[in-house]
Amino acid sequence: MRAMAKLPQEVGRPRGRPREFDLDEALDKAIRVFREQGYNATSIGDLTEAMGLASGSIYKAFKDKRTVFLAALDRYMLLRNEQIAAVARAARTARERLRAVLGFYVESAKGVEGRRGCMVVGSAIELAIADREVAARITAALSRNEALLADLIRQGQADRSIPGKIDPDETARVMICLTQGLRVVGRAGRAPADTSAAVDIAMKLLA
Fold first, then answer.
1. Domains of the chain, CATH where assigned
2. pLDDT tens sequence across 108-117
3. Which of 97, 165, 166, 186 could be joined to 109 by an S-S link, Cβ 3.0–4.6 Å?
């Protein structure tokens, strides 16, 4: 269910039901701005235009730009986690599920989606050094993704679709470096054109 943010009644307005806006929908629009422009280059004016809200409404609901950013980052990570989890459930063997997840990362780095960039990677580059709260969120996000890949490798070893000699944790860590690096080169329009070929190369880590 979508969250609804209620704005306090404006001074001088007649009594009645407070204005409402769809918080998730507003954050989705903010996500796009932050992905394309980054945090520092995004102004409250950019957010009001994208979110379709007056600046006063944003300040009442979120306090300041940083609060909007943190809420947008949390929603972005939630949505990405849901997408990745759905992809990871789609195939039969754990090896196939792992391949599907890697394919999702490659596809995400391509075309318009790739050029918009990943909010997690962008935040890590732009803000993580100076902002401990953002850094904690980025570390948690990368750790979750790494744990998912390691778990899929272990499942593959259990169903014998992945060799038992593979170290799940070390291999997952290398795969995270590959997938996040894809988002960086995707931002520059340099993501691999052939998803299958790129995934084939990544899967060689399981040989």
1. 73-206 (1.10.357.10)
2. 999 999 999 9
3. 186
